Each structure stands twice: as C-alpha cells, then as structure tokens.
Amino acid sequence: MIIAEGKPIKEILAMIDDYDKIIVAGCKGCVTVCSAGGQKEVEILSSALRLARKAQGKALDIKEVTLERQCDTEYLEPMREYADQYQAILSLACGAGIQFVAEKFRKQPVLPGVNTQFIGVTEEQGVWTERCQSCGNCLLHQTGGICPVTRCSKSLFNGPCGGSKAGKCEIDPQIDCGWQLIYERLKELGLLAKLEVVLPIKDWSTSRDGGPRKRIREDLKI
Amino acid sequence: MENYEPTVVAFCCHFCAYTAADLAGTMRLQYPTNIRIVRIPCTGKVDVRFLLEAFEKGADGVYVAGCLEGDCHFLKGNFRAKKRVALAKRILEDAGIGGERLEMFNMSAAMGPRFAEVAREMTERIRKLGPSPIKRPKSTAHSAERKEHRV
Amino acid sequence: MKAGSNLEKILTSGKFAVTGELGPPKGADVSVIERKANLLKGNVDAVNVTDNQTAIVRMSSIAVGAILQRMGIEATMQMVCRDRNRIAMQSDIFGAYALGLRNILCLSGDHQKFGNQPTAKNVFDLDSIQLIQTVKLMRDEHKVLGGDEIEGAPAMFIGAAENPFADPFEYRVIRLAKKVAAGVDFIQTQCIYDMAKFERFMQMARDRGLHEKIHILAGVTPLKSVGMARYMKEKVAGMDVPEEIIARMKSAGKEKAREEGLNICVEQIQRLRQIEGVHGIHLMAIEWEDAVHGIVERAGLLPRPQV
To answer: Is residue A51 part of a domain?
Structure first.
C-alpha cells in the first residue's frame, strides 16, 4: 500500500489561514490502513484545526468527510453536492488522490494534509517500511524476492558496497543492508550462483525517468 | 480572571480512579468541584479524539486517570493511554492550546487521598494557566502569550 | 598495453607498485594541490584523486587530475556513481582522457547522508561494476552505452576498489570476481590492519585464480594516534583494526604515537609484499602527505622504477 504521514499542524494552519470554510477529506484506501488519512485522522485533524483557530480568534467551519477512495472519479462525486459551499479542500489522501481531487474540483484550491512517503508494508502494528519504488521493470526473481532498488540505500544492482557491516547499512545502523538480505536469502535457497552474474545496467525508462507513466487496457475501456 | 474557576475533565478508569473517587467521597476528603468525571471502562478506551473534543467543548484542562502501571485490568490499557496522551499533548501544543493542559495519572482503587490530591493539583495547574485559549478574547490571548515569553 | 599509463607499465612489467592519494581542496585553491602533490612526487607511481569523498563538495577529481598530469605526476581519477548519470559519466570520461588522464577508479561512492549536502538527490544510475563495464566498452569496443560508435576511444586503465572487511565476508571474493568479469584491470583495497583476515581473503581470491587476472594493490594507512585507530575500528564502515594494533599505539604514548604508526605501516607493507597476488600497495596518508616519502623509503621501495 501507499504509506503517508500527516503534515505538521502548523504547516496546515498556514495553508488554510485565508479560509474559514473548508472540507477535510479523508480516504478509506491506503491512508486509512496506515493511519494517516482515514476517518479517524480526519476527526483528529479537524478537531485540532478548530481548536487552533478558536485560540487565534478566527472561527473555522469544517466539513468532515471520508471518501471510499480519492483516486477514482465515481467516489469523488458525492463531494459535488456541497463542495461549492467551501473555500478549499484539504485532502488527506495520498499524492495521487490529492491531485485527482484537484483535477475534478476546479473551483477551489485543493491542499495536501499528508506527506506521501512510499509503497510499503505494515511490518508490525504502527511500523511501516518501504518495499517498492515502482521502477516498472521487476527483477525480484533474480534477487531472492528482495528489491535492490528499494532496499539498498544506493540502489546498487551488484552490491553490497564496502559500507555493509554486520548486516547493516552504512547510512544508518537501524537499516538492514539490502544486499546482505539478498545474499542470505539466496544462500538459504541454494541459489548463490545467481550472485556471480553481473546484473546488467538498468533501463530506467520504465521508471519515472521515462516521464509520467500511463497504462491502458483497451479490453477494459468502455 | 480573579473569579475564574476552571473546568477540568477527568477520564477515570472504572477499576481504579473512579473507585478511588468514590473512596475519597466516603472518606469525606475535600477536593475541588471543578472536576467533571467521565467514567470509562479502561483508560485504553481513551482516544485522542475524546481528549481533543473535551477541549473543543470548553474544558480548560483534561486528565486521564488509570491504574498503576502493571495493574491494568486489561493488561495494557493504561500503557496505550499513556502513548495517546503523549500524542494528544503534542497536538494541543501545535494547535496553540498548550500540552500542559492535559496529563495522565496512575492510581489504584484504594488511593482515595491520592485521587483528591490529583484533583487539587490539576485544578491548581489549570487555574494558573488561565482559561483555555479558545475561550479568551483574542487580545487577552496575546497578552498571555507575551507574558509567557517574558518568563 | 591497454592504456599505456605509468601504473599499467609498472604492474605489467611485474614490478611492485606504489600508489598514493590526494584529496582535492574544498575550494578553488590550486596551491593546496601543488603542495600535497610535491610531497608525493617521485614517491609513488600514480596518485588517486578522490571524487568528492565522504560526499563533501571538493574540487573536481578530473580537474585536479589534469593539474597533476601537468606537474608530471600521474593521476588516477576516482569516479563515483553517486553524482552523475550515465550521460555525464561517459562525457566526463571522454573529457578526462582528452586532458591526459589514463587511470580511472570506478566506485559506488559514499552515501550523501554524511557529507555536507545531505539533502541532495543521489543518482546511482550505474553501480561501480556497471561503470567498469562501461569504461571497458568505451575503451575496447569503441562504443558508448547503447551501441553508438565513438570518435576516439578513451584508453583507460580501469581500477576498482574492494573492501575485504565488509560483510558478508564470504561474498567479498565473489564480488571481486564480478569486478574481474566486468573487466577491471586493477584493484585497490580498503586500508588493511587485520592482516590475518586479509590473508584469508587473498587465499580465497587465489583459489579462484583472480590474482592472475588482475593486479591487487593492498591499501595501507599510517595511524596518527590511538584515537584514530579506535575511530576507524568503531566508526568507519567496514574497517577492522585488531586490538593488538590499538595496544601498540596506546603503549607508544602521545609523543611517540606518530612514530609507532609509521613503524606499523612499514611492517605492514613488508608483510603485504610477501602475500602472493599482492602487486603493490595503495598508500593513503590522509592529510599526512609528508609521511609518504619516509614510509616508502623505509619499506625499501625507493627509488620508484622508471618504465
């Protein structure tokens, strides 16, 4: 899923300083699961914003809403009924959702309430870690199911570099060396021979480097 | 301001602080009438939203009173509450209300005197802090801020 | 001859090579380079010029390399994968060759987190092994990546680094073999203090026959103080300093620490020369360039051969 974290309240307060009627829009997708922008976070943030504005002596009217998803047109539609009565929409969806709201609701500014961080997993309750950089050309079959692009701090294809010490990365002793993980996994699988082969230079054109990406399935189009 | 009486909401666990409040009453201990008790089944039930809502509804101070650490009827409820109170304190700080208006206390059902003491302590703290910033006219809030800076 | 550099000539003629290292200044002051270079001149066969080491902004390794070449000192330009994509790297290799540089050391590069630009975007378009392949492609097949023919191939003597003390230890030699397969000509190792571990590493390299395919230069760094020894052991990623060396530095006392550091260094060089497959040393006297002459002389490696 996509992992995000709430923006600092002070940053949001500065964004909404000119408005006294806003929508705080959560999303029931990824940001609910990672506790950054679901219904609960909408309520907490709205409460904090109202308190802050009351303390400043400037009233704030908030419409709290949590949509099924913000990355699909049909789930944004319910907001049309009341959107025009508000001066801005503060979206707690991921960057994609925020932008999609901005695309579909053109009469008022759409503001980000979260920082979108990465594609990751829930390692344990309250702990999320990155797994994928969506490079568009998966090579996990060659690396024991561990992604060097994501898990190696230098995205090396032929690691580990000289900074790997006791299984940890040189940049932070809390971070596992991605290539140590790859090495151990392949050893476990009896596939260490895979590491003798030089992995070729990557074609980054399938990644963001090739420009904004688009996928079309003709058979699904209406 | 001199006649100001703060409103302090106390979220009290049924198994300890709430019973301690009862005991304080039975023991005829005096404690401020500013305290508004909300009985909860366990402090683990306390959500950040409740704490913020209490302030939105006009509380000048809020505290959560749970069992002694290690004695939670539901094992970890009071530890969860402790972390949530910490988060809510940060939010209140960022929102300009002040994190010191919220606190967590631990006590057992047998600690009636402690309940009364906490009630006095918290009432005094909030009385010193003055009314919640949301209740003060803007100009007063400003002068209060300036005073804080000088200290 | 692949590049015809002095270093290549020394190594291919079977002589024991000595390379030095020079860190470019954190600014545009050429006099710093000249001062350090003059201390190295005549004492080493080639001088590595670091490429923004530890991710601290310094003068370009190519520019400093060109200055050294003009001074009659052979340079080995270091190139890290952190700061440039394949377009810039290949372009810079053309430029470096045109300026007279003949040796290149291909490195991944230290992560920017610890440098003075921690908020930078890093690149790592290629990794060090892929960079070796790229330089070899340019030199031997006269092509850039993608297959376009080039006008004038940069004949570079290709080097890479190896850290025998990083983890996983058993994998280091496999990775060295990958560098050999990618087309590296010489290797300079991370500085060695744990001689026993390095000997094990060399045994593993010899078992694969790697010592016959490439030239391995063993890295040495003289210790200045017991504090430096401890720092290297504890703080520098992938560095092993045995207790015995720390104890020697400690018992030398503050006044004699530098002298003892030099003694240890000379002994290390003598021991390294005995190891089969070690074709030279890479002497990294960090901000202590004036120690180089003495070390090389005491190790019996002067005068440097003319080839």
So the answer is: yes
CB contact under 8 A, B141 and A55: yes
Q: Is residue B142 predicted with pLDDT exceeding 70?
A: no
Q: Which pLDDT does position B1 carry in this prediction? A: 53
DSSP string, B49-109: HHHHHHHHTT-SEEEEEEPPTT--TTSSHHHHHHHHHHHHHHHHHHTTS-GGGEEEEE--T
Check C108 against A200: CB less than 8 A apart.
no
Among A93, A118, A143, the domain-final residue is A118
In DSSP notation, C82-103 reads: SS--HHHHHHHHHHHHHTT--E
Q: Is the peptide bond before A160 cis (omega within 30 degrees of 0)?
A: yes
User: pLDDT tens digit string along B103-133?
Assistant: 999 999 999 999 999 999 999 999 999 999 9
Domains and CATH numbers, chain C: 6-298 (3.20.20.220)
Question: How far off is chain B from A131, nearest CA to CA, in Å?
Answer: 27
CB-based touch C/B (3+ pairs, under 8 A): no
- Beta pairing class for A168-169 and A172-176: antiparallel
pLDDT tens digit sequence for C216-259: 999 999 999 999 999 988 877 668 899 999 999 999 999 999 99
> Closest by alpha carbon to A158, among B72, B42, C172, C72?
C172
- Give residue C211's pLDDT: 95
Q: What is the DSSP letter of C163?
A: -
Q: With b meaning 16 or more CB within 10 Å and e meaning fewer, what string describes C45-67?
A: bbbbbbbbbebeebbebbbbbbb
CB contact under 8 A, A201 and C114: no
User: What residues in C contact A171, CB-CB < 8 Å?
Assistant: 111, 113-114
- Return the partners of chain A (3 or more C-beta pairs < 8 Å): B, C
Residue ranges making up the domain that contains A163: 133-209
